[in-house]
Specification:
By secondary structure, the chain is of the alpha/beta class. It has one domain: Alpha/Beta hydrolase fold, catalytic domain (Rossmann fold), CATH 3.40.50.1820. The chain is built from eleven helices and eight strands. It has an eight-stranded mixed beta sheet with strand order 1-2-4-3-5-6-7-8, with helices on both faces. Helix 3 links the parallel strand 3 and strand 4. Helix 3 packs across helix 11 and helix 4 crosses helix 6. The longest helix is centred in the first third of the chain and has 21 residues. The chain is globular, with a radius of gyration of 26 Å.
Length: about 325
């Protein structure tokens, strides 16, 4: 039976309309498959000007130099007890004092049952390397020497840092026991060894990172290029000092970051020695991830678990 011409035309018109409507309202399958979810917007966290909940905030002068007074910003839980301590070393290319940028992270870690301290070390415009490292070593010694007053468990001190601070944190940890790295700061004779370390977004081999072209921050920090003083760049590389007895160390990186030269080599050397290490890569995170949520919260969670494992928790105060 033949279909009437006007019925055929009607059917064709309906099909065309349906096709057009589908094209306007549907997303192609191929486009849906290749699109990733948008990265969270990076927004710098700002520490409260008021006293953080459950914490006491204090400032201590560590050392006074003509170019800069080195200070410690210390968060102490208000609940009585003795606590493990974590020293934070801020980033900023060794040339900018960015201690404020790390405060929210260290407040949150302190609220998990740790004493946290941030050191305002000498930056490159004030004194070249190894002044910054010496200040970090002095900070560890200060915390240990004043452990009773500060309610710190002296044998349970760790270090962490990001970017340039991650380099200094690793170097502080990896040179434990090497007297030539101590400097002349206060509390000489007090041990500057740390029991654990977290490195965030920091290269561990400065020679490899700078041998072709030394960046401006590194040149200002070392007052030389890698080609002019390659041995200095090797000496200042944490990977150079990995040996039996260095503390466990983990690395936290942003998925979109590139500052990781020497990290894999460091992990390989640590594992060969039977020293605990690990890598945490935060999805969609940029370089300064610890300064913004959700990555700051993720970092705090990782740090709390890692330091809790290696430092333990609060101990009751024992009366004199």
């Amino acid at each position: 039976m033949k279909t009437a011409p006007f019925v055929s035309q009607l059917c064709l018109t309906v099909l065309v309309c349906i096709a057009k409507l589908h094209a306007q309202t549907s997303t192609p399958l191929s486009e849906t498959a290749i699109h990733s979810p948008p990265a969270p917007k990076w927004k710098k966290l700002v520490a409260s000007e008021s006293q953080p909940t459950g914490l006491k905030l204090s400032r201590k002068i560590l050392a006074e130099y003509p170019e800069h007074t080195v200070e410690l910003l210390i968060y102490t839980p208000e609940a009585p007890g003795l606590y493990p301590a974590i020293l934070d070393i801020h980033g900023g290319g060794w040339s900018q004092r960015q201690i404020e940028s790390d405060r929210v992270m260290m407040e949150r870690i302190a609220q998990r049952g740790f004493i946290t301290a941030l050191v305002a070390y000498r930056i490159s415009g004030e004194a070249p390397y190894p002044a910054a490292l010496h200040d970090c070593k002095s900070a560890v010694r200060f915390l240990r020497a004043n452990a009773k007053e500060l309610h710190i468990i002296p044998e349970k001190i760790a270090v962490m840092g990001g970017s340039a601070g991650g380099h200094l944190a690793a170097l502080t940890a990896m040179t434990s026991g090497k007297s030539e790295f101590e400097g002349s700061g206060p509390h000489q004779g007090t041990d500057s060894a740390v029991q654990a370390c977290i490195v965030m977004a920091a290269s561990q081999d400065l020679f490899e990172a700078n041998q072709k072209l030394t960046n401006a921050n590194a040149h200002a920090f070392f007052k030389a290029s890698c080609s002019e003083n390659p041995e200095l760049f090797r000496q200042a590389s944490p990977v150079t000092h990995i040996r039996a007895g260095v503390p466990p160390i983990i690395f936290i990186e942003g998925e979109k970051d590139t500052l990781k030269i020497g990290r894999q080599e460091s992990m390989d050397k640590l594992r060969a020695l039977g020293i605990e290490t690990g890598l945490y890569t935060l999805k969609l995170a940029p370089h300064p991830f610890w300064m913004s949520d959700p990555w700051c919260a993720e970092t705090v969670e990782i740090a709390t678990r890692f330091f809790g494992k290696h430092l333990g928790g609060v101990q009751p105060l024992i009366p004199d």
